[in-house]
Amino acid sequence: MRAGYSINDIQFGSGDATALMVHCSLSNARSWAPLAGQMGAEFSALAFDLPGHGQSQDWTGTQDYQDACVDVAATYLDRPLDLVGHSFGATVALRLALAYPRYVRSVVLFEPVYFYAGLTDFPELRPRYDGEYNEFAALLQCGDLAAAARHFMQRWGDGPDWDHLPAPHQSAITRRIHLIAAGGAALHGDPHGMLSSGGLDQLPMPVMLVRGDQSHYMMDPIHTALARRIPRCDQIVVEGAGHMVPITHAADCATLVHQFWNGL
């Protein structure tokens, strides 16, 4: 049990893990396999299924979803590690770095979906984004989970079109689509003061932000807003990649991570 949840985890490589990897929403720990497979024989990392994902216990709903994920992830910080996060998992990693800086040596964030940061610095995008998200939220509220899943994947999935996904894959996404809204409070506000003085501006470790140049229009402003506040921050753009950049462009991302870690 970890933070009150039965959590499934896996290890890539052998020996003592040097990194902790936090996957994106609607996925699981094994989504890191392509990147881990490109990292070389000496790479060793732990990855876990977030609550409600993979083989981990379902989210209980008794606390904010991101808070639950952060609490679970924190149980793995028994020694200094490098954090690697993707999308929602990257926002979890960012909060871990703020809360436990002495246990975090560095942070690699693939497209952290901290929308509030981008909308704070680029308010002209709010009408467009709010219209998009409100459409998704309305589908959830009326109980049309399949339509909500389709709406979400059309904007954030880099794989086959929804109608060409295998039925079991569609079903798995639809069953978990409520978790997107469950994590929304922390992504659409600043309940933990990350953007305020004493938040991200106090991060002591180096951070690398990686995004695809073909990704959702919000990712560039989010990265720009975060980089303005994080003292030791590199921004990298992978050409031809979308939101699933650590999966679709694993070899490129592995090279970037190696270069980042070698330069610490």
Task: Write a structural description.
This protein has 264 residues and is an alpha/beta fold. It has two domains: 9-121 and 187-262, Alpha/Beta hydrolase fold, catalytic domain (Rossmann fold); 123-182, no CATH class. The chain has twelve helices and seven strands. Strands 1-3-2-4-5-6-7 form a seven-stranded mixed beta sheet, sandwiched between helices. Helix 2 crosses helix 3 (88-99) and helix 6 packs across helix 7 (167-176). The chain is globular and about 45 Å long. The mean pLDDT is 97.
Q: How would you classify the quaternary structure?
A: single chain
Structural class: alpha/beta
| Share in β-strands | 5-15%
Order of helices and strands: EEHEHEHEHHHHHHEHEHH
Would you spell out the secondary-structure blueprint of this structure?
Blueprint: E1 9-12, E2 19-22, H1 33-37, E3 45-48, H2 65-74, E4 81-86, H3 88-99, E5 104-110, H4 115-121, H5 126-141, H6 145-156, H7 167-176, H8 178-182, H9 184-187, E6 207-212, H10 219-229, E7 233-238, H11 245-248, H12 250-262
Parallel strand pairs: 2-3, 2-4, 4-5, 5-6, 6-7
Antiparallel strand pairs: 1-3
